Amino acid sequence: MHCFVRDLSGNSLSFDASTVHELQFALADRTGIPIPEQRLVYGSRQLVSTRDESLASFGIVEGSTVGLALRLKGGAPKKRCTAMLSATDRCSQAAVRIVGDCQLCQAAFCSRHRLAEDHHCPKLSDCREQAFLKNKTKLEAEATPSEKLARV
Length: 152
What we know:
Pfam families: ubiquitin (PF00240), zf-AN1 (PF01428). InterPro entries: AN1-like_Znf, Ubiquitin-like_dom, Ubiquitin-like_domsf, Znf_AN1. The protein is α+β, with helices and mostly antiparallel strands. It folds into 2 domains: 2-70, Phosphatidylinositol 3-kinase Catalytic Subunit, Chain A, domain 1 (Ubiquitin-like (UB roll), Roll), CATH 3.10.20; 84-142, no CATH class. Helices cover 25% and strands 15% of the residues. The chain has helices spanning 20-31, 124-142, 145-151; strands at residues 2-6, 12-16, 38-42, 45-46, 65-70. The termini are far apart.
């Protein structure tokens, strides 16, 4: 079957293949993109690379254009709790998102170790003092004029 493949730069390449595997092999030969990194898409559906799966089973007819994309690699490793259970053992639970991150030391904690009592951050006392001063100035700014005169 004669079909076209639109490559990464937008050019159309013509191929004669009957299965997805033959198409990927011919594409790797012509473009130099290895087969494991190829991702062929037709009709918003990815063509699975099996040796026996024909192009017609995906609805590809003579003269159809198949899109080529590269597989996405990577992704950030999952955050793990950084709490120490003992001198040598670390908690192996997954970190809780948003609530479990310390803004002071960039450590992540699971739901069991996310409380301030369990977290021994060296900047925690400074943080408490800054929070106290911030709340104090906020409350003083919200005071009524009679309360402000009473303080003077």
